[in-house]
Design a protein that fits this description.
The chain is mainly α. The protein has 2 domains: 232 residues, MetI-like (MetI-like fold, Orthogonal Bundle), CATH 1.10.3720.10; 257 residues, MetI-like (MetI-like fold, Orthogonal Bundle). It is built from 22 helices and no strands.
Length: 511
């Protein structure tokens, strides 16, 4: 027996059963009044001009770091993506080995979360905005390179070969043959990366790299919930504005959605794109000057703190099996709650018109709320551990996947759902078999990709909730045990690379 296609999207939600069984034993009664005060503050945020001015300044710093990190990653990713494309090397030199070697090397920087990059660079370069920009640019550049190379390898090469055989120079032939068909997918993915960069810049601020994230952490630690919600609402307004702009550009320029379907007509896409790039360049210069980000500052490294004498045998004696198992269990629980929770919640509120609007607001808060702050909030009422960390990480990714599911439902159209309703089916059955059946495989394919992203993000909540490899990384960083840090990064890289391979296989099978 095989489950019907629409039911496939609900299967990951089965992880909620053991979570619900374990949850009562993890609760303690110390912080429920704080949770009530926190929720009450959501409708009564602080309107103090001094507070708002400080939060707006932090938001400007976060947005500036995100913009600079995103622009740098796109430039790095395009160059490395072309250099790691099998199609490019096969067309120019009749061999794919350099591309395969570079692809394997690029798996290392993208396997390390931007937070780890930020903490390591902080030790080398000191506290400066350039650290956050570089921490975003390195892993994001490797991720963009992977997408660019995959997009290039999926293109037909007949036009490129014809230009090369006619005597056209290789750079001109590459731009003419591969540039136009590559552009739509690149811009669509680039817009998505900009949204991710904003979230990453906020997260880096939580761990001391400046911006609004630092303000949010201080207000939470001091229990100033009204000021905290003022910052959250400002961040939500910026994030929703950015998402709306990216959506409008995708529709105007005929970019594909993340389900691979184009929207709108191309129109004057090329001319408008050139104008957008021309306007972006001076903006980047102004932002870099305002944040005092200078590339030359990256050349001045400070010496690392002395490493205490410690034998490698002591490092190897750490509880590695339990650390790895807890990390994988955390990934499984968080991924299941996020992937399966979005369609489950959408089905539950299907009969009510206001239900979808409420979910959209909840998912928007999940996207903008950094997982470490969610973990800190949960620790008011729950004991630290895998389940607490999974709830924090699952809530954040639920917001991302929930938005994706709604976007896919809009792309799929309402024809089948309305037909089922007209035949007498209920709202939930019509949504399940009318909409989910058309996007089940593509949604699960993206969920598989999101799972290896969640694996990288386990370090974020592990630092706070005290579980998995992230908890050991926190202790190793505090004691400057660089041998432990090096081995932890190696284990993370291996797990992430294996996770990427498994998610790639799952996506190919689903699609």
């Amino acid at each position: 027996m095989k489950p019907a296609a629409p039911l496939l999207v609900l299967l990951p939600a089965l992880v909620l059963l053991p979570v619900l069984v374990l949850l009562p034993g993890l609760m303690h009664g110390g912080g429920w009044d704080l949770i009530g005060t926190f929720l009450e503050a959501a409708v009564h945020p602080s309107l103090d001009p001094v507070v708002l001015a400080s939060l707006l300044q932090g938001l400007a710093v976060t947005a500036g770091m995100a913009l600079l990190g995103w622009a740098s990653s796109v430039l790095i990713g395009i160059a490395l993506g072309i250099a790691s494309s099998r199609l490019v090397w096969r067309s120019l030199s009749a061999t794919e080995r350099p591309a395969q070697l570079l692809r394997r090397l690029l798996a290392i920087p993208r396997s390390i979360h931007e937070l780890i990059w930020g903490l390591l660079l902080l030790q080398l370069l000191g506290l400066q905005p350039a650290v956050a920009v570089l921490a975003i640019a390195i892993p994001y550049g490797a991720l963009v390179a992977r997408v660019v190379s995959d997009l290039l390898d999926a293109l037909p090469d007949q036009t490129l070969r014809a230009l090369l055989l006619s005597g056209a120079p290789a750079p001109a032939a590459l731009i003419s043959a591969l540039g136009p068909p590559l552009l739509p997918g690149l811009i669509s993915y680039g817009g998505y990366r900009l949204e991710c960069a904003l979230r990453s810049a906020t997260l880096l601020g939580v761990f001391g790299l400046g911006g609004l994230g630092n303000e949010l952490l201080l207000t939470l630690q001091s229990l100033e919930f009204r000021e905290l919600w003022s910052g959250l609402w400002l961040l939500l307004a910026l994030m929703l504005s950015l998402e709306a702009v990216v959506r409008q550009l995708r529709q105007r320029w005929g970019m594909p959605s993340r389900f691979g379907l184009g929207q709108g007509s191309s129109g004057q896409r090329g001319r408008e794109l050139l104008l957008a790039v021309a306007a972006l360049l001076p903006l980047l210069v102004l932002v870099a000057q305002a944040l005092d980000v200078h590339p030359g500052a990256l050349l001045h490294w400070q010496p690392l703190p002395p490493m205490p004498e410690q034998h490698w045998l002591e490092t190897l004696a750490l509880p590695w099996p339990s650390l790895v198992v807890n990390t994988l269990l955390l990934t499984l629980l968080a991924a299941g709650m996020a992937v399966g929770g979005a369609p489950l919640l959408l089905l539950l509120v299907a009969p009510w018109r206001w239900g979808r609007r409420l979910l959209q607001l909840l998912w928007a808060l999940g996207r903008l709320w950094p997982p470490p702050l969610t973990a800190l909030l949960l620790l008011f009422v729950l004991k630290p551990g895998v389940v607490t960390a999974a709830l924090a990480l699952g809530f954040h990714n639920l917001g991302i996947l929930g938005r994706l599911l709604l976007e896919g439902a809009e792309v799929a159209g309402a024809g089948a759902e309305e037909a089922l309703r007209s035949s007498g089916s209920g709202a939930r059955i019509a949504l399940l078999y009318g909409r989910f059946s058309a996007l089940a495989r593509s949604y699960l394919a993206y969920g598989a990709y999101r799972s290896d992203v969640i694996l990288r993000e386990t370090v974020v909540v592990g630092l706070v909730a005290g579980t998995g490899l992230g908890s050991q990384l926190r202790e190793s960083l505090s004691s400057f045990a660089w041998d432990q840090i090096a081995l932890l990064l190696l284990v993370y890289a291996v797990l992430t690379i294996v996770g990427e391979d498994l998610s790639d296989r799952a996506r190919r099978r689903l699609l």
